[in-house]
Design brief:
Blueprint lengths: L2 E4 L1 E4 L6 E2 L1 H14 L4 H8 L4 H8 L5 H14 L5 E2 L3 H7 L5 E4 L4 H11 L7 E2 L12 H10 L6 E5 L2 H9 L3 E4 L14 E2 L6 E6 L5 E6 L1
Parallel strand pairs: 2-5, 2-7, 5-6, 7-8, 8-9
Antiparallel strand pairs: 1-11, 3-4, 10-11
């Protein structure tokens, strides 16, 4: 079992802490049908990146900001089927709040709603689509997360379920652990390790020269 040491942990939200697959698929598929687009392709593109970037990719002639606002409100209003993923609640409970952040491609309003529905703490340190100009796979979101916590990027570890998120974390100089909830393990091959879920992750908080979190990935 590989193990890693770090000073802070950055979590993607959807596909790592919460399972929003049914919500995302339902809402994006309906939107794709409204615009005569291939729903399977649109849903595939939507995973792991900001809504506005997905709209620009799949429908460049539409008003990206208008469509983004529309889709986000639908996602906020429709949380049917959303659930917390195994191990997420237990792992967050072990971590001091100042040692972890959530870095999501969704907006703060959407992330807050999903955390509340899943029964997870609404973390004060959260980097969302509202806080960056370039989303994943650009390193900006994870660099912003490290900065918000006050740690060097090289001392941070990331849990991600999407290839774009893995690339974002690695480009930021961080350790990246893949969680194959949305994509197959082979799609996350750039990760430093892959864990089937957060339930298979053991954390030990060690006092000393600084707070270090030891991660064991099954």
């Amino acid at each position: 079992m590989p193990s890693f040491s770090c000073q802070a942990i950055l979590f993607d939200l959807d596909g790592v802490l919460v399972d929003s697959t049914s919500c995302v698929t339902r809402i994006w598929s309906a939107w794709a049908h409204e615009h005569g687009l291939d729903p399977d392709y649109v849903v595939h593109v939507a995973h792991g990146q900001r809504t506005i970037e997905t709209v620009r990719t799949v429908a460049p002639l539409l008003d990206a900001q208008y469509e983004t606002d529309l889709i986000e409100q639908r996602e906020i209003d429709d949380a049917e089927g959303l659930r917390v993923l195994p191990g997420a609640k237990e792992l967050l409970r072990l971590l001091p709040p100042e040692r972890y952040a959530i870095v999501t491609s969704g907006t703060r309003r959407l992330a807050t709603k999903r955390l509340q529905v899943a029964g997870l703490p609404v973390q004060g340190t959260m980097i969302t689509a509202d806080d960056v100009t370039r989303g994943k796979p650009d390193p900006e979101p994870y660099l912003a997360g490290a900065h918000a916590l006050g740690f060097e990027p090289k001392t941070c570890l990331v849990f991600e379920d999407a290839p774009s998120g893995i690339r974002s974390a690695k480009s930021a100089g961080m350790i990246a652990i893949g969680v194959p909830t949305t994509y197959r393990p082979r799609d996350l091959a750039d990760a430093d390790a892959i864990t089937p879920s957060l339930q298979a992750v053991a954390v030990k908080v060690v006092a000393g020269a600084g707070l270090w979190v030891l991660i064991e990935v099954a």
